[in-house]
Queue: 2 jobs
Job 1
Amino acid sequence: MIKRNPLVMVPGPTPVARSIQQAMGRETISFNDPGLVAEFNALVADLVSIWRCDGIAFVVAGSGTMAMEMGITNVTAKGDRVLLCSNGHFGERFIDICSRKGFDIEVLRPPKWGLSVTVDEVDKKLSGSKFDVLVITHIETSTGVEFPLRELTRMMRSKHPETLIVVDGVASMGGVEAYMDWGIDVMLSCSQKCFGISPGLALLWASERAIARRRSMPPLAESYVDFEKWIPVMKDTMKYWGTPPVNMIWALIEAMRIIKEEGLENRFKRHRAYAAAIRKTISAMGFKSGAEENVASPTVTVGLYPEACGLDDAAFRNAVYDEGAHIAGCLGDFAGKGFRIGHMGNIDEHTLVSLIASIERACIKCGYKIEPGVGLAVMQKALLEL
Ligand SMILES: *Cc1c(COP(=O)(O)O)cnc(C)c1O
């Protein structure tokens, strides 16, 4: 029998479409090949216009974490006041990055994992004292919680327009609504989540205001991630700073072609519909969503084990793997108590049905007694209603 790779249903990397694999597999040419330069320039222009950015988009080799570091470093000077909203593991990562840099930081956290810091709490905090920068995680991958970004940007624009907004959009960009002209100053992401590319590319969008902020700051201690080094390259990709990852750029061009073909708004709708179907399905199988329903994200779902179900976390996830789907373990407060499903990017109905079938067989094989088909029936109904 053919041994297939399991479905990649972790919150990054996500399944990579054949045409994107082919783009990555092309014979590498020089970064200043005129054909590539033209394609790369067009790509950057596309990123800017599609996400309605009045500034610049950056495409740089690196992971999402580097994009976080690059994003905050270019708009925040030593001693600046930074308000960080942490809804979980990746919020804490941003705190770690900021706390090494001599910023004056304060943190807002929800009372427990699975909730989000609220827009009111941010408003209250900013009304009490001035902050230079606000940092939020749009989708917190450890809890499957979506920050109410649209509502936040509206509030910020009307009440605290002087504070810059930095958004970790790693688990949302390309799958969930977020536009720079909402008033976002720095948005950051990377290739292996909703864009459906292999890991390796960091993506950033910086508003005109963010770039002005960088220009008004003292020289950075950092070099590779300095906007000033990359701006000339992004304006004309013939210029050189660090060698662009040629094959990954082709991959992003193909990923963007797929996104445009689907239509951004359709893609957003699809992510929300699939996520709702997954939550309904796992709930029918007895699992509880780690995120409260009103903040449950369109791209990642945490399923918490029912009490006394007899499932051992590691053994269960290994069984799901053996049945054909790779899902992730939980982090922090949820560690050992459930699993995480990434449902981002270029996935379809076949993916979802196979995923649920794998989870069902693993449940039964691990001694958690559910009826075969109990989850599939709910998933099928949900897909028929799309
Ligand atoms: C995955 C992820 C990151 C980290 O990205 P890496 O590519 O692993 O460095 C940061 N923030 C969020 C919200 C993520 O989901």
Job 2
Amino acid sequence: MNHVIEKRSEGSRSPFVMNTQCPFCSVQCKMQVIQEWKDGAKPSYTIVGVPNAASEGRLCVKGMNAYQHALTEERLQYPMAKRDGEFVRISWEEACSMIGMKLRELQESYGRDSVGVYGGGSLTNESAYLLGKFARVGLQSKYIDYNGRFCMSAAASAGNKAFGIDRGLTNPLSDISLAKCIILSGTNIAECQPTLMPYFTRAKENGAFLIVIDPRVTATAELADLHLKVRPGMDAALANGLLKAVLEKGYVDEGFLASRTKGVGDVRKHVESLDMAELAEMTGIEEELIRKAGEAFGAAPTGMIFTARGVEQHTDGYMSVRNLLNLLLVTGKLGKPGCGYGAVTGQANGQGGREHGQKADQLPGYRMIDNPEHRSYVASVWGIDPEELPGKGVSAYEMMEKVHEREIRALILMGSNPVVSNPNANFVQEGLEKLDFLVVADMFISETGRMADLLLPVTAYLENEGTTTNLEGRVLLREANKAPLGECKHDWQVLCDIAEELGRGRWFSFESSEAIFEELRLASKGGLADYYGITYDRLRREEGVYWPCPSVDQPGEQRLFAASFAHDDGRAELVPVDNHYPKERVDGEYPLYLTTGRVLSHYLTGVQTRKSPSLAAREIESFIEVHPSVARKYGIAEGSLVSVTSRRGTVVLRCHYSVKIRQDTVFVPMHWGDVQNVNKLTSEQLDPTCRMPGFKVCAVKLERLY
Ligand SMILES: Nc1nc2c(c(=O)[nH]1)N[C@H]1C(S)=C(S)[C@@H](COP(=O)(O)OP(=O)(O)OC[C@H]3O[C@@H](n4cnc5c(=O)[nH]c(N)nc54)[C@H](O)[C@@H]3O)O[C@H]1N2
Ligand SMILES: Nc1nc2c(c(=O)[nH]1)N[C@H]1C(S)=C(S)[C@@H](COP(=O)(O)OP(=O)(O)OC[C@H]3O[C@@H](n4cnc5c(=O)[nH]c(N)nc54)[C@H](O)[C@@H]3O)O[C@H]1N2
Ligand code: SF4
Ligand SMILES: [Mo]
């Protein structure tokens, strides 16, 4: 395995133990990476899961192999600038002065907002916080957003509106085994958070009835007592069906509705007016099964609902989640052991990354940038005049539109690969080609990195200390184990250096991630996501601390809403939800629904997992999952290459027959770029409330290739 760095950087030949946590998904499994020199000069690695309250010592195949990409010499090791189409090595001094010159020039000619910042949910809380501050105080630009827009925005908006607060799981994971009925909708835990599966098998052993809603029979669906193979994009209508079944049978917690909620009257009226047979027709699920699911949930003494991107990544994702929250509220299943909601967070720091100001409309601690009180509080922490804070910008994909329009002329990307992960990827690529200056801070040269004018090498998780907040809302400290590779810098250091170059250094004079965390604590104090009571010392001593945690002597709140919701009147809000169809429907020309998602061994756009030989070998290329009866209709053989076309583009994929998928639907994973980039097909239409794209449904046609 010549990918592994052979340098014995940590000195002796005795085993070198690195205590860390997996950089990939939101479970944030704790692990040890043990480096040994058994024989010969090459080190070998043993990976051991470390017991902790979330993963309980388990690891999945990605965690087991996450050392490989972090230790490969294929990583970026020094800044590189593009000269005559080729990347050449330059020094950090040259890189910084180039950034300073370019950004000053553009901002002087076209205004401060001509420079945009685009972040990611892999960044630590410290870097994510600083990125938000960097955009507003360093660049004084309103244009900042991040890849979590594509991930968490529908559930976050729904949680905020319904409950007054958004935290991935309202309950600790240990509550799952107390739930007697569990709905998993559009969440494929078995492949995406595999180490959580035992929580669900344990619940089943305790007698829980498990309902999975997914157009495919996933490994998660195989565990279900009832699988509703929903037509993509029809979750809002399906939830109406579940509500109708519950209301008709009277499985309603009237006391809870009266004392803790508002808006149920309108929901009752709306749901009564709907016709169950029509709902069955729309969703592709028999009436009897809808009733069975609704009644099982209503009748159970305790119950939880989990959603992930299958429900959320739609142009009505926000309303679909709201409707499932309606179901929880009507049945009174919140704020009690075994009763709650979970928006299963995706990225390592998908939760913390959405709390401290990477979002276009947000300031640290979940404060809002258009709220005068919030502005003045955060401005006081930052030592600036509130007037100097820019207003709200636009969402991630809309930033790409601004790039096209040349309103944004330079972009600083940190922790994302937008030409692969944005919808309508051909358009996004065209836009980024128009930029005057593209800076990409990454560990590798991603598909977007290839387009950069300047590449900045950053440290990997083994080198980079900082906190992440896992899907439970539990803040964890990940200590650094190794010196940075080559000339790599931490993300936050890069931001401090650029700010210094721009003459804004006095707001960015941090020497450690802990120093940034100290400021974050203060900036979040009194906000919804209050981290004030959390310190590095506490995180070292305790097993992580849940937010909100307003003071150092408080434990942090494990289970939310025991006594009240976070709205000013303490009440949760129900809202009637219409049956939405996806904005793009199938027709004679594009007869199949395409849905997209993940496989076990790869992570997001695959930049990291494809650099791991063990993971790459498990799945070497993308594919399209097609029902055999549909494939045969088009004369497409199992294993052959097929061209897949939507109104926006074409990709070429290998056909996998699968009887597990609906016959009107095909599935493609999102982990590959270039000709296999499924986002060349997906649509640019966004959810009107949260600006989430409809990644989970568009219309396509298949053609066999010879
Ligand atoms: N192995 C792996 N794990 C990951 C990641 C990864 O890339 N690879 N990424 C992480 C991140 S950032 C995220 S956000 C999470 C994502 O975690 P998930 O959201 O669980 O993953 P997806 O595969 O995107 O989608 C989940 C399921 O939604 C189904 N689905 C598609 N359309 C619909 C629909 O209209 N309605 C319903 N109800 N279901 C539908 C799909 O068939 C799929 O099985 O995973 C995290 N964990
Ligand atoms: N069709 C379709 N598209 C989707 C989705 C889908 O389900 N279907 N899911 C969406 C979702 S949920 C998500 S979260 C997005 C994610 O999509 P992206 O934002 O593109 O996420 P990654 O592929 O993780 O890209 C992260 C890049 O940052 C680098 N990186 C990793 N860690 C760090 C770090 O600490 N610092 C820095 N500077 N760089 C780092 C990686 O090497 C990689 O190049 O994709 C979205 N796009
Ligand atoms: S990918 Fe997620 S479940 Fe797997 S080891 Fe990493 S953190 Fe744990
Ligand atoms: Mo995500």
